[in-house]
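Tutorial, part two.
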Amino acid sequence: MSETPIRVLVVDDHQVVRAGLRVFLDLLDDIQVVGEASDGSEGVAMARRLTPDVVLMDLLMPRMDGITAIGRIREELPDVEVVAMTSFIEEEKVTAALEAGAAGYLLKDAAADEVASAIRDAHAGNVHLDPAVARLLAQRLRRRPAEQEAAEPLTEREKDVLRLLGKGHSNKEIAAALFITERTARTYVSNILGKLGLASRTQAALWAVEHHLVD
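Running the prediction step on this input gives:
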């Protein structure tokens, strides 16, 4: 358990949802809700002001939808992780949220403990997907033709890092497995994302699966 609580911003246009999440999360010693926002635009503004560790982001909201807000936050605040939450599972929205940089995707009927796990995983640099979403992505990957290779080939070390990324390992775990520093692992991840033209660790993990670097 982290000594410093994970600072969370909750973005949802339903006050009862925000209140319910706050009541549960405030019971946990390692998670602290630092703010609430009622739409994507307000969520982006509050993320700029509060710089939380993790944002819980609804996808269907007025003024600015969650997918757009995820993209804005990830672009402006790359150290802030975002977990998407929605009532519906649609392949288009799942893909769009992950491509925008979401580090997780939950359905709103998820158990409270799973929400907490998703927050912890995102903060640790891991990907957390609702089981139904994971099945959907697996089906999509089986249908999807392999994408073009990276314009600049990956080094063998970068491939090693990407394999571990594809297995959901955090930077700390990658560093331990490869006997490098966590900072070096973070640099490798950044280089991989740049070479592959990807926006998030989630996309890199999917790329690794699609290109058979991991099962």
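The radius of gyration is 17 Å. In part three we will examine how such features are distributed along the chain.
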